[in-house]
Amino acid sequence: MRLFDETALRKLEQLSLSAEAVRVGAMKGNRRSRRRGTSIEFADYRDYAQGDDLRRLDWNVYARLERPFIRLTEEEEDLAVHILVDSSGSMDWPPGDDRAGANKLRYALQLAGGLGTIALGSGDLVLVNLFDGGGQRGWGPFRGRQNGWPLLQFLEANYDAVRSRVGGPGLRPGTALDAALPDYARRARRPGLLFLISDLFAPGSGRDGMIALLARGYELAVIHVLSPDEALPDLAGDLRLLDVETGQAAEVSLDPGRVDEYIARLRAWQDELQDFCRPRGIHYTPVTTDTTWDALVHGTLRRQGVVR
């Protein structure tokens, strides 16, 4: 597959996603519900994972299958994992660039595939949505390791489909985050851990939409994706800049001083987003696409406790 490397995906097998307040689920997964209860009624089995209490291992099953399985009770439930990917025109940048570590849309879909693979391998319920101003493309809800390959196929198939739509003649559809996020919150049945992967190039940067998701009981992790040339532009002279989503043009003259001012404003914007997210319990992660998606998962997201 063009987007996904099998070696990188294989390294995700021992990881799981974590929410500070696990939402109650309807199916059985590999984590404990935080609701109080004393039920010891048998519900299901799952694969043994390092660190599990060996007293809960079913030795009879192990003797027959020569594989360790843990017994689950009615109090053990799964986590609903929602992965929302902004597929608007600004995410297809640099346009036409299909190199790893370059195009933001490619990067976002790779990250979505990695996070989804972790969640499916942990027995969690997974829903993925690609959305822009022109509509949504959804996958799920599904659970179970056997759905990992269909998820990757969905993302791979939609990579070219989305780019052909946003990269065609005329303007490319933008995403009104403050409309799309509350709409998703109303439609989705089970709140849980929600990843928003976006460049946040929208009025308000989606703040009102995030508040709407929090109000419905979601725990949010915002991955703020920019390309290296957006974070540190290599431009100079008299330029005419065109917004790929609105068509608005701006005439600018760039010298080193103006570039430094741009960089300072970008950092101030990211600091404002961090200040907005931190007191609300939102995990905010700014990243540029020259940091590989798997390095982000194994590094920053693990340090935040979102991945374990």
Task: Describe this structure as you would to a colleague.
There is one protein chain. The chain has 308 residues and is an alpha/beta fold. The protein has two domains: 6-12 and 78-304, Rossmann fold, CATH 3.40.50.410; 42-73, no CATH class. Helices cover 34% and strands 22% of the residues. The protein has ten helices and ten strands. The protein has helices at 6-10, 59-65, 104-121, 148-166, 177-187, 207-215, 228-231, 256-277, 293-298, 300-304, and strands at residues 42-47, 69-73, 80-86, 125-132, 135-143, 193-198, 219-226, 237-242, 249-254, 283-288. The strands form three sheets. A six-stranded mixed beta sheet has the order 5-4-3-6-7-10, sandwiched between helices. It has a two-stranded antiparallel sheet with strand order 1-2. A two-stranded antiparallel ribbon has the order 8-9. Strand 8 (237-242) and strand 9 (249-254) form a beta hairpin. Helix 3 packs antiparallel against helix 4. The longest helix is centred in the C-terminal third of the chain and has 22 residues, at 256-277. 39% of the residues are buried.
